[in-house]
Structures are given as C-alpha cells and as structure tokens.
Amino acid sequence: AGSGAGAAMRTEISTAAAFVTRLLRAGGGVGEEQLRCFRERLQEAMRDHYKHHWFPLVPSKGSGYRCIRINHKMDPLIGKAAGMIGLSHERLFQLLPSELTLWVDPFEVSYRIGEDGSICVLYESPQPGGKAAKQLESRTSCKEEWRTGRSSPSKSYNMMTVSS
Hints:
Layout: H1 4-27, H2 32-50, H3 63-66, E1 68-71, H4 76-84, H5 89-95, E2 99-105, E3 108-113, E4 119-124, H6 138-142, H7 145-148
Antiparallel strand pairs: 1-2, 2-3, 3-4
Helix pairs in contact: 1-2, 2-4
C-alpha cells in the first residue's frame, strides 16, 4: 500500500490519539507539554504498527491487530508512548479506564469503556464508492460517558460472546 496508507490513516490515528490524550488530561496531573508529546509519540507508534495492516477496501480486515486495549494489562502502544514522557504503567492505570477498547479502522474509530459498555463512535466517514455514512444517534448519548467512566447497562446482548 506504499505511502498512501500513511496519509489515509492520518485522520483515524489522530482521532484515536487525541481521544486517549483527552482521557489522560481528564485524569489530571499531566502537563500540557507532556500530553502533546504523548499524543505525537502515540501517533507515531500507531502509524508504524498499522503500516502493513490497513485495508481501506476491506476495513474490518486486521481490526483485531489495530485494536488498542487496556484490560488489566496496558496496551503496548500506549505504554510505549507514555514511557517516552516518563509516565509509568502504574500511573497510566490510575489515569485511564481499567477496561478500554479502542478500534481504529479505515473510515471509523470507535471505543468502549468497560467490558459491557456501549460502543461509541469517535469518527466515521463514508467509504469511497460505498454508501454514505449513516447518522449515529448513539453519538449524543455517549459523548460524555468517558468522563464518568460509567456507562448505561447495555441491552441483553453483547457484541461478542466468548463461552468458557
């Protein structure tokens, strides 16, 4: 996909990095200069990581690989970027939700806080040659959700069930 992928990913990556940076800022105690550096480092790490895993023609392909996850373990991309500005994993766990999933896919960036929180879309654009982006009602209902860290109980279904 050459250098075209880098330009194509820019909006999605900057949206995702800005979101994680906003979460850190909301946690408090991190300076603006540190936050700016963190955001740049995270964007670089994501660009490198996604370089050969970005398929605009098949947006869901590689989605698991691009998924950023905090689940009692710190996502390596976030951990790496934070380490560069001197934030330890312990500090990150204090500042960020303990359960966060962030999907960075071509044309869509979405996240979920908590294992059964609702999925909220941060960015969505129509796919070239695809149908226009649908208007999302969920956008208003969960815009402020990340501030409280709580989410309304989801309906009785889960996006993905894993049987043990």
